[in-house]
Structure formats: structure tokens, C-alpha cells
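Field reference: sequence -> structure
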Amino acid sequence: QVQLVESGGGLVQAGGSLRLSCAASRSMVSITAMGWYRQAPGKQRELVAGITSGGSTNYADFGKGRFTISRDNAKNTVYLQMNSLKPEDTAVYYCNAVVTTDFRYNYWGQGTQVTVSS
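Structure field:
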């Protein structure tokens, strides 16, 4: 089991920045990968960025050059730094953790709202 707690969302003007945090309840050494997803009203949940236990990262095209995912293993925390925010980035952002043992387990946080005003 992994509990994930997100924080850092809020209201920001277009062009501004936010940093989201996701604290995991267990050591991230045992977590295969972690990521950030988002879901806007009326849309499907989509990947924003991911990071593996080895530190490899991947980003959705809309986030390249603007978003940076990072991890602090000592704090069991993953971050999403979002710069140059746009109104279309408005969504609920969810933290995800994947644990692979004999099966692949997916865990989700409760989500944090990000609202970008124009």
C-alpha cells in the first residue's frame, strides 16, 4: 500500500508558477515509478510527467520546456515545478505511484486543484 498526499495547488495568473508536491507513505526506492496526471472538467485524465526509480523522466508535449518533475528520496516526495502557466493548464492534478512486484499496482492521491486565470 502507498498513500499519496498532494499539496501546492492554487490560483495563479497566466505566466505564473506553482510547485506541486506529492508525499508518499513509503520509501520511493520500492516504488517503480511516480507521475503527475491531470483532469480538466469534461476531459479524460492525462499524463503530465513521470519519473522512474532510476530517475528517468518523461513529459507530455504540452509540458515540455515548462514543467519539471523531480524527486527527493530522502523525503519520499515528488515535485512538479510548473512555469509559464496557461489557462488551459487549469485542472485537478493527481499524483500516481506504480509498484511492481508480482503484479502492477497503481495508487492515486486525492488530487489538488490548479486554476490559472487569464
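Note: The first strand starts at residue 4 and ends at 7.
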